[in-house]
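User: structure tokens for RNA 2',3'-cyclic phosphodiesterase, please.
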Amino acid sequence: MTHRLFIALRPPPPVRDRLIDSMDGVTGARWQDDDQLHLTLRYVGEVDRHCANDLAEALGGLRMPCFEIELVGTGAFERKGKPHLIWAGVAPNEALRRLQKKIERICQSAGIEAEHRKFMPHVTLARLNSSSGPVGSFLADTATTRFGSWNATSFGLFESHLREQGSLYTEVVDYPLGAVA
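Assistant: Done. Predicted tokens:
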């Protein structure tokens, strides 16, 4: 049996509420549900149970202080010159980058192939397809929106279950931040 995993931070309800309140104005966009809103630190992908257990155990050894994080502004990722995903951005944050680098090292030590994409912290707001409307007005209206900040006190290992109506994410383990050995 394989598990489709990722490691992420989950914004608290007030920040998720502000994100949801912004989700409007792009026809045909598949807006994310509250349960889907997260900031991916590392996509792991399909792994067998043994690898999943090794990773879960290794992540438990990560030590790092809590830190403040802020979501601000929006943008879009393009594929073949067309937007395919709308996201909320993250204010520059060195602590977040340190956490992501520690997680990357742990993933590699657990036998997971190195991530080759540059870390671009964001929270996905919507997925788009060829029938989705233009995103320019939405991006202009939300370019400097401050969605809120929070004190990141934990991160989680999540499992993704693919469904026709969108992915269902289940937190498998919650890892506290704040304890520094």
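User: Anything notable?

Assistant: The first helix runs from residue 13 to 22.
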